[in-house]
Design a protein that fits this description.
With about 500 residues, this protein is mainly β. It has six domains: about 30-95, Roll (SH3 type barrels), CATH 2.30.30; about 100-170, SH3 type barrels; about 185-255, SH3 type barrels, CATH 2.30.30; about 265-345, Roll (SH3 type barrels), CATH 2.30.30; about 355-425, SH3 type barrels; about 435-500, Roll (SH3 type barrels), CATH 2.30.30.40.
Length: about 500
C-alpha cells in the first residue's frame, strides 16, 4: 500500500479517536475535589506524616483521581496537580463535587480574558480562544447584571469567564425537574431516615468515611441509589447545600417530597392517684385519726398521690393534693392507689437553625473568608438561622445568632440548616437553670476587670464552660462576661470569644 495512503489512514483514525474522547469529556464531566480549608496541604500519600508537596487555597477544585483511608481511618482524596503530578488532600478540609454540579461551556469569541473574579476589573489570569471548552461549577451576575461562569481553568485553579462570550454545551444534572418558566427546581423525591442516629457516609458502603449522623425522621433530597459489596441498597442524599452523602436503605426510605409529617404528637404520661373507696372519708392534716380535719370527700373521688406513711395506729395513710393550695392525708382503709395514663396532644412548630457539622469552624463578621473572625465554634453546635448569602466564589454562607447580642456568618459547606422542633407547651418543671458560657476563642484571656487593660488572671481554651455571674459593657460598647474562674476566683472574658449556653 502506498506510504502516503497509510499515513492518511493513521491520521484519520487518530483524529476520530481524539474527537470521540472530546465528546466523552463533554458528556461525562469528571468528578472534582473542592478545597474547603484555607490553605490545605497536598501530600505525596494519604496521611498527615506523608511528605508535603504544596498548599492549595480555599475554593479551588482539583480533578479527582481516587480515594482511600489513612491508618487513622480518615478519608483522603488523590488529585491531579500541574505538570501531570499527583497528590493527596484530607477530606477534613476537602469535599467531592459530583457530576450533578458540573456543566460545560465553550468559548465563542476569538480571544477572551480569564479573570480571578466575576468582574471586568478583576485580575487577568490569562486568555483563551474560540472553541475551548471548560467545566463550570456555578454562575454569578456582576454589578452590571452580566453573567459569569466559574470554570476549571487548569489543574489547580478556578477562574471566571464572561458569559456574553460563552455558550453552554451541557448543563449540570439534576434529580428533580426545572420549571421552564421560572427556572425553579422542583424536588420530587426525598429520603426519610427510619433508623435512629443514621450514619451518613462518603460512599455507598459501611466502609465509607463517616460524614455525620442524622436523627430519625429527618428528610433529605434524593440523588441516586447504589449498592455496596454485599449488594445492600444505599441512597445518596443532599446532606447540606453543597455536600452529598450516602445512607443505608435499611435505615431509610424514599418518599414523595410533598409528603407531610403529622404536626401533632401524642404524649402519654403515667400518673399515680388516690381514689376514695368509701362514701364519706375525712381528709386530715397529718397521718392520724386524731389529727385536725380539713374536710370530707366522697366515694370515687380522685386526687394526685404525693406520699405514703404509717400512722401511730399502724395503718397506712396516703398524702394527697386535696385542693390547689392544700395537702392532706386519707387512711388506706377507705382509699386505694391507682395508676392513670393521661394522653395529651402537643402542637409543634418548627424553626430554622444552623447546625455545625465540622470542627473547628470560624465565625466571621461578613459572608467571606476575608471577613473579620469573631470566634470559633465546633461540631454539633446549633444557632438560630438568620439569612443565607453567596460570596464572590459562589459559596453559600449562613448568618447565625452567634450569641445574645452578636450575629455572625459560617460557611455553608461546614454547616447545615435543620428544622428544630419547638413545643407549644412552655411549662417548666420548677427547676432553676444556671446560665453558663462556653469559650469559643483560642486562647482567651481571663482578666480581673471588664477591660483589656485589666490584670490577666490566666487563659482558657475553646470548649471550656464556666458559670456566668454577670455581664458588663466597656467604654468601647463591647460585652464582657464575668465567670467563676475557679472555686475562689472570679474573672472577666470578652464576649466576642464566648457564648451563653
Amino acid at each position: 500500500m502506498n506510504k502516503n495512503i497509510k499515513k492518511f489512514i493513521v491520521a484519520v483514525l487518530a483524529g476520530a479517536t481524539f474527537s470521540c474522547m472530546g465528546v466523552m469529556e463533554v458528556l461525562a464531566a469528571p468528578q472534582y475535589v473542592q478545597i474547603t480549608g484555607d490553605p490545605v496541604a497536598v501530600r505525596d500519600n494519604a496521611g498527615t506524616t506523608a511528605t508535603f508537596i504544596k498548599q492549595v487555597r480555599y475554593g479551588n477544585r482539583l480533578v479527582y483521581l481516587s480515594e482511600k483511608n489513612d491508618a487513622n481511618g480518615t478519608r483522603w482524596y488523590q488529585v491531579k496537580l500541574t505538570g501531570g503530578k499527583k497528590g493527596w488532600v484530607t477530606s477534613v478540609f476537602a469535599d467531592t463535587v459530583d457530576e450533578k454540579y458540573v456543566g460545560r461551556v465553550e468559548v465563542d469569541t476569538n480571544l477572551l480574558n480569564v479573570r480571578a473574579g466575576a468582574s471586568l476589573t478583576s485580575e487577568i489570569l490569562g486568555t483563551t480562544r474560540v472553541g475551548t471548552q471548560y467545566d463550570y461549577f456555578s454562575t454569578k451576575k456582576d454589578d452590571s447584571n452580566q453573567l459569569w461562569y466559574l470554570v476549571h481553568y487548569n489543574d489547580e485553579q478556578t477562574a471566571w469567564l464572561l458569559g456574553t462570550y460563552c455558550k453552554v454545551v451541557s448543563k449540570p444534572g439534576s434529580s428533580g425537574k426545572t420549571d421552564s418558566k421560572t427556572g425553579t427546581k422542583t424536588v420530587e423525591r426525598m429520603v426519610e431516615l427510619t433508623g435512629s442516629s443514621v450514619v451518613v457516609r462518603s460512599k455507598a458502603s459501611a466502609k465509607g468515611e463517616k460524614i455525620a449522623t442524622a436523627a430519625k425522621g429527618k428528610k433529605f433530597e434524593y440523588l441516586a441509589t447504589g449498592t455496596d459489596e454485599k449488594q445492600q441498597t444505599w441512597y445518596k442524599i443532599q446532606y447540606t447545600s453543597d455536600k452529598s452523602g450516602w445512607v443505608p436503605g435499611s435505615d431509610s426510605k424514599i418518599v414523595k417530597a410533598a409528603d407531610k409529617t403529622e404536626s401533632k404528637t401524642v404524649k402519654k404520661t403515667t400518673v399515680k392517684q388516690v381514689q376514695i373507696t368509701a362514701s364519706k372519708v375525712v381528709v386530715r392534716k397529718s397521718a392520724s385519726k386524731t389529727s385536725k380535719s380539713l374536710g370530707t370527700t366522697a366515694k370515687g373521688k380522685k386526687f394526685n398521690y404525693l406520699a405514703s406513711k404509717k400512722g401511730t395506729d399502724g395503718k397506712t395513710w396516703y398524702q394527697i393534693q386535696y385542693n390547689s393550695k392544700t395537702k392532706g392525708w386519707v387512711i388506706s382503709t377507705y382509699s386505694k392507689i391507682i395508676t392513670t395514663e393521661t394522653t395529651k396532644k402537643e402542637e409543634k412548630t418548627g424553626k430554622k437553625i444552623v447546625e455545625i457539622i465540622e470542627s473547628p469552624v470560624n465565625v466571621r463578621a461578613s459572608a467571606s473568608l476575608n471577613g473579620k473572625k469573631i470566634g470559633i465554634t465546633s461540631k454539633g453546635k446549633k444557632f438560630a438561622y438568620l439569612a443565607t448569602k453567596k460570596d464572590s466564589a459562589g459559596k453559600t454562607w449562613y448568618q447565625i445568632q452567634y450569641n445574645s447580642k452578636t450575629k455572625g456568618w459560617v460557611l455553608g459547606s461546614l454547616s447545615r440548616i435543620v428544622m428544630e422542633e419547638v413545643k407549644a407547651d412552655s411549662k417548666t418543671d420548677g427547676k432553676t437553670t444556671v446560665k453558663q458560657i462556653v469559650i469559643t476563642g483560642n486562647p482567651v484571656n481571663v482578666r480581673a476587670s471588664a477591660s483589656e487593660t485589666g490584670k490577666k488572671l490566666g487563659t482558657v481554651s475553646p470548649g471550656k464552660k464556666f458559670k456566668l455571674l454577670s455581664t458588663k459593657k466597656d467604654n468601647k460598647d463591647r460585652t464582657w462576661y464575668q465567670i467563676q474562674y475557679d472555686s475562689k476566683t472570679k474573672g472577666w472574658v470578652l464576649g466576642a470569644f464566648a457564648e451563653i449556653v
